[in-house]
Amino acid sequence: MILTLPELITPDELVLIKRLAATVAFTDGKATTGELLQKAKNNQQIPWNHPVMKEISAVVMQALGRCDAFMGIAHPRRLAAMLVSRYQPGMAYGLHVDAPIMGEPNHVRSDVSFTLFLNEPDAYQGGELAFETGSGESAYKLPARSAICYPTGQLHRVRPVEQGERLAVVGWVQSLVREPAVREMLYDLSEARDQLVGKEGTQRALDLLNKSYFNLLRRHAEP
Exposed end of the chain (fewer CB within 10 Å): N or C? Predict the structure, then answer.
């Protein structure tokens, strides 16, 4: 499931993240890419192990933690990695799947990816985050402060930036629930349950939804 998260961070948090990122020299994005994707990736980044990322990560993780939609779809167990990416004119990232294992020396499985947009869409041309689907591509270019999350195994790319600068926080979390299909079922059950809360004559349906939700989570969660 691909899920957008409008206004994930506050205006003050956006200012803080951009101020912190501005204090750091960006490095070649190829430094954290395997051999197979060296030709596909052309961007710059603040890598996950840079000291400033500790502060940025704390801000973003706090925002994700208060976002019910993200918590409902991701069931996060721990952060796998987070970095700040920058695309300038001519830069792009070809079709790829994010790494399944991240972090050194303590390896973490990556289950859910997210991109937090830091620039407004009219600040750059191109640069859409595009996902491969069975009928072509679906592309997203969200307002600053908004984010999108998706299964880490989803094929995707960043289209070439033609003008301006695309700045974003990109991160990956390990989920308590390994299977994307199960996470989606849990999310749907939770949404259906919320639709019934407070409506007359729905208590039996709510009881059954709660039972199914908790037993499905109990069966598949890996604390």
Answer: C
